[in-house]
């Protein structure tokens, strides 16, 4: 086997996933770069107020957790198609927490802000995700990342910070908090009737670093009615990861949902 073939095989190895992928083709490929994971503790009772009842909340050390995740999206394309001009690279900002449906742990998004209008429309249509169009910039200053976002529909929803890695890269230990927050291979969304859908994803196991952050603005949580237990986040950085996404499926039958 040639070197390129071996690299491709290793990149999309699914043996580390906790359950098999659906027996259907993947639909989208993308690259995530310069990610900050800022995680805030929140009481179960407070989180239960703002997460749909169809999703079981996950806890770690007795607490639920909210993640604020800014990053750069690139290489976005549908299977079998080249990247659409002007839609393949843009900054994004996700607000997320951790849930389970039918025994499969995943991510639930409160919001996803992006700087690309077509990408926002596409993700809302294909994946029923709460995407919002925002004025957003990300700059790589060598070891320092500058990120600034302000939602178009509500200018009070703002986020601005600088962040950088602050340790050597490491793979999270089994059972650790770091593994718990990042090693999740699906996200959940709901239709208008409150019925959950699952989107499976595939990527290599995460490589993280500790992070340092200087926050200038962050109303992403307070403006969405999220009441935290502490304003002090746990911080991690990830340089880059390649991702494939599958169509939305029924969480129990694995059948495609329309």
TrEMBL record:
Sequence intervals crossing the membrane: none
Pfam families in UniProt: DUF2071
Top-level taxon: Bacteria
InterPro entries in the cross-refs: ADC_dom_sf, DUF2071
Protein name: DUF2071 domain-containing protein
UniProt source species: Lysinibacillus odysseyi 34hs-1 = NBRC 100172
